[in-house]
Give the backbone structure.
Amino acid sequence: MALYSDKVMDHFRNPRNVGIIEDADGVGEAGNPICGDIMKMYIKVDGDVISDVKFETFGCGSAIASSSMATEMIKGKTLDEALTLSNKAVAEALDGLPANKVHCSVLAEEAIKAAIEDYRAGIAQKEQKK
Ligand code: FES
């Protein structure tokens, strides 16, 4: 069996939603100290819905594929729905990752959660200033 599924290879070779959102409403970063890979997620929020999402990943192919798949899974979803996205769901959507690459999908889950937290912290600050 091939080490990587066709879906992993597809998202690695043609990653969706790569880039930066200059005027992002929330930005989240996650890193793995062991491999040194870093993932950054940018979200745009419209009401309660993630209207746009982009990522930058300085990391391995599985991390790039995981970020790409994760962005597709949360685009158009509410913040609460996006918060429930688990790394397991990302890995399953990619038709699985090798055991030593599961942590790459954890970065995607963590970066999305961090971006949503960043967005919510910004809202809370604005409310306080009122
Ligand atoms: Fe660390 Fe893939 S090897 S994110």
